[in-house]
Model the fold of this input.
Amino acid sequence: MIGVLLQGSIEVQRGALVEGIAGITTGLSQYRAIGAQLNVPFFLSFLAEGYRRQGKLDEALQVVADALSLTATNLDVFWEAELYRLKGELTLAQSSVQRLASSVKKGPKTKSDIPQSAFRIPQLTAEAEAEACFQQAIEVARQQGAKLLELRAVMSLSRLWQQQGKTAAARQMLAEIYGWFTEGFDTKDLQEAKALLEEFGG
Done:
């Protein structure tokens, strides 16, 4: 069962979404059938990622909510920070999709026909909710000493701050956590962090 779950998670990361989602779903069903719960939130995060890449944001958010609920009831918290980060990313993605769908439904003739106030309040709400998720992810990761998960959450928050015009604060926050690492610079997360710092001009 664990092998099926691991293989499904790997396939999601590789982009084989249909196969990966099917593998994780099947594996979780078998795993839970014997009463096992350990590491379920971890595998649910890959299921949520698979749904996200398919554009099924509602399903992805529901999976993350289920996973976070399990971290609370089963104290299976080692992946909690990543789940909060993913929830924040999904919240922003869902907000963007909803705003786009709303503009298409209303059918404005030109960009100037769209009142700037039409979407700003929902967008601000989504940004605030996402930022709260990223901050929670950072706090959890720090409490656990999970520096790699902290780095991921900081990158997500940095990108949001960059979009809000707070590039200097984003650069400083990211530089601080990136500077903690002394090895592993060939890994994907650290390479992304370095590229983001260069984009910030630091």
Summary: The radius of gyration is 18 Å.
